[in-house]
Design a protein that fits this description.
Layout (H helix, E strand, L loop, with lengths): L1 E3 L2 E4 L12 H6 L4 H16 L5 E5 L3 E2 L1 H7 L3 E5 L5 E2 L2 H4 L5 H10 L2 H8 L4 E2 L1 H7 L4 E3 L4 H9 L7 H11 L1 H4 L2 H4 L10 H7 L13
Parallel strand pairs: 2-3, 3-5, 4-6, 5-8
Antiparallel strand pairs: 1-2, 6-7
Helix pairs in contact: 2-12
Length: about 210
Amino acid sequence: MSWFGPTVELSNPPSTRKDRLDLGWVLANSDQAPAYLRDVQVLLARLLTLPVPTIAAVNGHAFGAGAILAIAHDFRIMRSDRGYLCFPEVDINVPFTPGMAALIQAKLTPAAAIAAMTTGRRFDAPTAVEFGLVDRAAEESALLATATAAVRPLAGKDRGTLGSIKSTMFAGAAETPARRGPGPPRDLTRPGRLLARCRLIASPVRLPGR
């Protein structure tokens, strides 16, 4: 993840996936799992209330935590001809944490949340648009240009005001156990560092002209 003036965009290389938590690492380091999940939830809460417009350009598969990471953005654009957005937790016997469930429910309609969280369904781009999981679909060649065009008009918004609005809108979802848990608070000012620590597959993409 990178900062681009007034906006943040998250994308991933075409050959990879914003896929999920690194479950292999979690199983091999079970003693660190609580802190690991805490970091993930802090990252999601920080992104949810970031005081700048954010957009996720999803150009591959987004499963599990990768899908939640996309949902945490203000806007989402998905490649039209390839990839699925999916919450497979119900099929892999991994319940949502309260913070992750609250985030998804804060961003989706009740019907869409039920369809996404309880079925394990894989949503292609047209279906994801229909259910409101993403705002629109675009061809791969136009994905970043479409994302840029969507957020560029929002460049002049005051960060203090926007941050306050988001914090109020998503107060329930942002006040996760990650912020209330024991131990010193994590650094909420550097989402990029948290992204790396949370072992989520994502790469920065610089917006044209930024």
